[in-house]
User: Fold this.
Amino acid sequence: MQVMNDNFLILLVDDRPENLISLEEILDKPGRSFLKASSGNEALKMVLKNDAIGLIMLDVQMPDMDGFEVARILKSTPKTKDLSIVFVTAISKDEQYVLKGFEEGAVDYLQKPLDINITRAKVNVFERLYYAQKTVKNSLLEIERVNKQLERFVFIVSHDLKSPLATIGMLADLIRKDELVQNEKELTENASIIYEVTNKLSGMIESILDYSRKSQSQQTIEEVNTLQLVNEITQLFSLPERYTVSTEGDFPVIQTKKIKLQQVIQNLISNSIKYNEKSNPEITIGVEDKSDYLVFYVKDNGQGIAKKDQEKIFKLFEVTDNTSKHDSSTGVGLNLLKVLVEEQGGKIWVDSEPGMGSTFYFEWKK
Assistant:
């Protein structure tokens, strides 16, 4: 019988071919598959090669290596120690033999000649237990995945909140020192900027809290005007007049998870500001339509990135020689953006020349 990946897989072990045939006929039903071994050594090889085995029906009396020895080896190996083993035997029903079977790791003991109804009923129970354990294992893996996602989320939040907070802090400090406050009008203008950035920051925090309360499948897909989103993000930075920020391309309205797209664009713009110490910094945000994907890009005329570092910068905790005098890089930010983009089925990459600036591209599924 062909082994199907989604079936309950039972390994039958007996040195007599007629017993293997008989046992398969008793247990065969839709949703089950079988492997058959005629010796202990053959059984061990099959188990080590196949992670999908859910139950072993193991004959005790076999030449060379009996069932007790096979069970002892399986239970002493970390990879196979949790496999369910049912001994099938024609030897004495004496208590000492039954106890020996359980001591070697059996979960049940069937006496030959087999009672068909009891055999089927017991295997049905082990099949249900197998799927229940599989469900628990998958749940634990999902919890671990969510925990890792939350760890990444904490890093992303710290990046996203830096820019508006820095703007608020800078303007508040200038007001405190009276450096920009020559009259009441200037004071009002600076206070208005602080108020506007604070409102946007509050909106970001609310969106992030909403995001954190929801699982991946529950996160809201909404209509997003991508040009409006880019404009809102650039306003958050309140850049000095020496900065030239422009857009190019036909920015569409799409259905997507807004907070994630905002995180990627905002962090790329933030990096373009952070790693540009020229007197006339230039930043261009653009988009190209590529069939199933939009390709967004953020281009600057900053210091650029050496070829040897262009793949390294997307790896977690990798810190390169591309630094600025205000740099406090942890090697986390671009790796997080890579994760966000790949969650959407796209990829992120950079085209850069040292001294000539960088262009970061990323694909976003429509």
User: Anything to note?
Assistant: The chain has three domains: 8-114, 146-219, 220-366. Residues 324-331 have pLDDT under 50 and may be disordered. The two ends are 44 Å apart (CA to CA). The domain at 8-114 is CATH 3.40.50.2300 (Rossmann fold).
